[in-house]
Amino acid sequence: MFTGTALFDLLLPGDSRSLKAKRGYVRPILAALRRFEVSAAEVGALDLHGRAQIAVAVVAAEARHVREVLDSCERLVAGRPEAELLSVRRRLYGEDD
Q1: Which residues of 24-55 are buried (b: 16+ CB within 10 A; e: fewer)?
Q2: Phi, psi (deg, nearest 5) at residue 58
Q3: Which residues, in sequence order, are CB contacts of 51 under 8 Å at separation 6+?
Q4: CB 55 within 8 A of CB 43
Q5: How far apart are CA 85 and CA 63, in angstroms?
Q6: In which order are the strands placed within the sheet that holds 39-44?
Q7: What is the pLDDT along the chain (97 residues), one digit of tens a residue?
Q8: Given this model, what pLDDT does residue 30 score?
Q9: Using CA atoms, how far apart are residues 44 and 1, in angstroms rounded to an integer?
Q10: Residues in Cβ contact with 61 at an 8 Å cutoff, skipping those fewer than 6 apart
């Protein structure tokens, strides 16, 4: 069994000056990520307008599959026109961890 996590740090548009506007940008990203059958949630920068941190977690039998899913998630987030991907931190955990 292998698990993988990714933490995406996002810069949101300047008009996300309220938490309601911020949610309007974050929710569609989370919904799109969940189509990859991953757990996804906003986990950081909760009180900062204009910034968001989204975490993704996946579990699979093979490390290769975990990497492929995280790659797909990263491409999706990077391709979203409404948010700028500032950084990604990824981790892969195996049976020995």
Answers
A1: ebbeebeeebeeeebebebeebeeeebbbbbb
A2: -140, 145
A3: 9, 10, 11, 12, 45
A4: yes
A5: 24
A6: 39-44, 51-60, 2-11, 84-93
A7: 999 999 999 998 877 777 788 888 899 999 999 999 999 999 987 777 888 899 999 999 999 999 999 999 999 999 988 889 999 999 999 877 6
A8: 95
A9: 27
A10: 1, 2
Query: What's the chain's Rg over C-alpha atoms?
Result: 14
Please give the distance of CA 35 from its chain centroid, rounded to a whole number. Answer: 12
DSSP conformation letters of 30-94: HHHHHTTS-EEEEEE-TT-TTEEEEEEEEEESSHHHHHHHHHHHHHHHHT-TTSEEEEEEEEEE-
As given in the structure block, the two tokens for residue 41 are 């949630």
Tokens standing for residue 61? 């039998």
Query: Using CA atoms, how far apart are residues 23 and 69, in angstroms rounded to an integer?
Result: 24
